[in-house]
Amino acid sequence: MRPPFGDEEFPAAPYPGARPDVSFAHLNGVGAPLRPDRHSPSGWRVDHTGDDLDDWLAERDAVPMSGRVPVLAYGSNACPSKITWLRESLGLTGPVVVLRARCEGLAAVWAAGLRVVDDQRPATLMADKDAVEEHAVWMADPEQVRVLDACEGRGRRYRLARVRSGHVVLDDGAVVDRVLAYIAADRVRRPILVRGKPVRCADMDQAAAQGLVGKRAGSDGLKASTVDGEPNPDTWPKRVFVYGTLQPGHEAWHLLEPMVTGRPRRASIRGSLYDTGMGYPALQLDGDDEVPGWVVPIRSPRRTLSTLDKYEGPDYRRIRHVLPDGVVCWTYVWTEPTHGMDLLPEGWRVSA
Q1: DSSP 3-state assignment of 60?
Q2: pLDDT tens-digit series, residues 63-120
Q3: Sign of the CA dihedral 68, 287, 335, 54?
Q4: DSSP-derived secondary structure for 263-330
């Protein structure tokens, strides 16, 4: 068990500041380490209390994990003291969830220009097929994204984009495809090239970086698409895991089939499946059975999920869940008691 830590253990100066080597939830100058837990609906537990992260967030009137978007933090935003600065200077509110991430094919490099506020050199993101770096992903609620927009000068210094380059994997094994990131918009936020090569932040500290002399790169090499407006949490991921009446060939497949793009594939998750006795099953994550189902890629996730939410009703809760291969899917877990229900160790077999 890792105890909470204070901001003083991770100073913000010099940029980009110090980072914990653990995923954490930050509030009131204190970071609470997190650990992955596949039995937990949120996928995470607060290490020192054992609470499900969503329960911990609910106690603080905060947005659950399903209502947050993944934003790559490759500069100072993974530093707890910087997070407190965002609270004090830009009005950041609520718990901030910061998940440690392994990034392959992406590098934090020094930018061509210095920051006006303190003459320090900021980081910028670049594609680098040989890079393997440890960074973090904020699971940010809508208001927190607005604060990050202000901090990063969205549309001026940096642009918010969905990055298709590289490979981002969280501590729980989740693969964050099309991760959001603030990447260079202004030319001075493009990488600086010294003798024709970028300089990785991991290879040079701030003091040395301030004295760099070189040329501005023409491109960051990233495959990325700019996000217009506020990113919606429902748009990631673009797939659902279905295990009951919504499976191909079953009673409610006709609701989902028109919204499918690509070919569904068979998969399973660990948990317990029960027969409600009402013509549909109930999934809970507290067991070790292999619950069979299908991963279904969907178009227009916001519209699709709205339809599925109405179909599933109030007895189910929609969550993101990580499959054994790291693929993240939306799925629905049962929220009511299962006392008296029969277990279905072989899965839901009733077909239309």
Answers
A1: coil
A2: 999 999 999 999 999 999 999 999 999 999 999 999 999 999 999 999 999 999 999 9
A3: negative
A4: --EEEEEEEEEEE-SSSSEEEEEEEEEEEEEEEEEBSSHHHHHHHHHHHH-TTEEEEEEE-TTS-EEE
Instruction: State the number of CA atoms in the 13 A half-sphere of 342 facing the CB.
Output: 9
- Torsion angles phi and psi, residue 255, rounded to 5: -75, -35
3-state DSSP assignment of residue 214: coil
Percent composition of the chain: helix, strand, coil (DSSP 3-state, to 5): 20, 40, 40
User: Which domains are seen in the chain, by residue range?
Assistant: 5-232 (3.10.490.10), 237-343 (3.10.490.10)
Q: Is 301 left (phi over 0), alpha (psi -120 to 50) or beta?
A: alpha
Going through the chain in order, the beta strands assigned E by DSSP cover: 5-6, 24-27, 30-36, 44-46, 69-73, 96-110, 123-140, 158-163, 167-170, 179-184, 192-194, 197-198, 215-216, 224-226, 239-242, 265-275, 281-297, 316-322, 328-334, 342-343
Give the HSE-up count for residue 249: Cα atoms under 13 Å, Cβ half-sphere.
Answer: 8
How far apart CA 328 and CA 306 sit, in angstroms, is: 19
* Beta-ladder partners of 216: 192
**pTM, whole model, 2 decimals?**
0.96
Partner residues linked to 241 by β-bridges: 295
Nearest to 53 by CA among 282, 330, 320, 331: 320
